Amino acid sequence: MAALLMHEQRRRSESRESQRKESAWPSRTFPGLKTGSGLLPKVVTALVVLALLAIVVKHPADAATWAKSIGSGIGAIIDGIATFVRQLSA
């Protein structure tokens, strides 16, 4: 009887430990990066990143202006959504 209880306790302990190990590790190494995707999406992403980097290096003032205007546009969109939600609740 004691051996059966010890076996059951060991099994529960191992089960809890394996669940902790599984939940501690994310399913992907880098968030947002699909490691199993094909070659074409990776090449397109790399080309877009290189193009943006080239724009920032060659034309930093223009890139800063564009970034500022994009940020202002996003802020305006958020303000518009907030105004809409406030009007819905009024």
Radius of gyration from CA coordinates: 26 Å
What best-fitting shape do the alpha-carbon axes yield? elongated
Tally of DSSP helical segments:
3
Helix fraction?
A: over 70%
Give the class from helix and strand content and strand pairing.
mainly alpha
Keywords: Membrane, Transmembrane, Transmembrane helix
Transmembrane segments: 39-57
Biased composition (Basic and acidic residues): 7-23
Region (Disordered): 1-37
Describe the protein in words.
The protein has 90 residues and is mainly α. It has a domain at 60-89. The protein is 81% helix and 0% strand. It has helices at 2-24, 39-58, 60-89. α2 crosses α3 (60-89). The relative contact order is 0.04. The mean pLDDT is 83. The chain crosses the membrane at residues 39-57.
List keywords for this structure.
single chain; 90 residues; mainly alpha; transmembrane helix; transmembrane
Can you lay out the helices and strands and say which pair or pack?
Elements: H1 2-24, H2 39-58, H3 60-89
Helix pairs in contact: 2-3
